[in-house]
UniProtKB/TrEMBL annotation:
This is glucose 1-dehydrogenase [NAD(P)(+)]. It catalyses: D-glucose + NAD(+) = D-glucono-1,5-lactone + NADH + H(+); D-glucose + NADP(+) = D-glucono-1,5-lactone + NADPH + H(+). InterPro entries: NAD(P)-bd_dom_sf, Sc_DH/Rdtase_CS, SDR_fam. Homotetramer.
């Protein structure tokens, strides 16, 4: 736990479930004040708020579609109105769909890019603008993926969005480091979340995924939340512009693990 995170204010987008929920709850454990963002699942977001409060943190739930500029502005304003500042922005909200690239419509492409890439940009822009205006030396954490460097057939829109997030993170980190604003990303590997529940319920599929992970297991969302807490804390105050891969070694070319090749 990081004592200096107590009472810091954070927004976590897409935090009604999955990795976002775990990050928000971990921030609650750190006694932070958290804006829980959801797009459509108000009931789930309310449950996350309750969990945060049970851990000693404070929280509110705010509906916002991060692909919409006015919604993002309203989200940041909610943090200021409710808690007085914004110290940490976690851009977690994202979507994916499986479509063969040659059959992918422009609408399907734009749908994923508008949330994952444009939405992350809007959240970064508004958080940075707020921090500059109010003199906050804050931390921005973008949720990327191992697929910002590992190609993923049938998910070209998703992989492209995550590759964009990687360069966006590095560019913003370089631009705003002199202002004391840190921008980093997390690249999760295979994580046991609701979006993957059906896939991992098949023992054969699960075993196949585990073979791609040198550490041999699929992580829980709480393990990503621990990385987010470190990046939000002063323990990482000299760290900016990185993508921290929390992937059990998935990006280390696991097919070469036996020394072949």
């Amino acid at each position: 736990m990081y004592e200096h995170l107590k009472e810091k204010v954070a927004i976590v987008t897409g935090s009604a479930s999955g990795i976002g929920e775990s990050v928000a709850v971990r921030f609650g454990q750190e006694k932070m004040k958290v804006v829980v963002n959801y797009r459509s699942k108000q009931e789930d977001a309310s449950k996350v708020v309750k969990k945060i409060q049970e851990h000693g943190g404070e929280a509110i739930a705010i509906q916002a579609d991060i692909s919409k500029e006015e919604d993002v502005k309203r989200l940041v304003e909610a943090a200021h109105t409710s808690f007085g500042t914004l110290d940490v922005m976690v851009n977690n909200a994202g979507i994916q769909s499986e479509v063969s690239s040659h059959e992918m419509s422009l609408d399907e492409w734009n749908k994923v890019i508008s949330v994952n890439l444009s939405g992350t940009f809007l959240c970064c822009r508004e958080a940075i603008s707020y921090m500059l205006k109010h003199g906050v030396k804050g931390s921005i954490i973008n949720m990327s993926s191992v697929h910002d460097i590992i190609p993923w057939p049938h998910f070209v829109h998703y992989a492209s969005s995550k590759g964009g997030i990687k360069m966006m993170t590095e560019t913003l980190a370089l631009e705003y480091a002199p202002k004391g604003i840190r921008v980093n990303a997390i690249g999760p590997g295979a994580i046991n979340t609701p979006i993957n529940a059906e896939k991992f319920s098949d023992p054969g599929v699960k075993a196949g995924v585990e073979k791609l992970i040198p550490m041999g297991y699929i992580a829980e969302a709480e393990e990503i939340a621990s990385v987010a807490a470190w990046l939000a804390s002063n323990e990482s105050k000299y760290v900016t512009g990185i993508t921290l891969y929390a992937d059990g070694g998935m990006t280390l070319y696991p097919s070469f693990q036996a020394g072949k090749g």
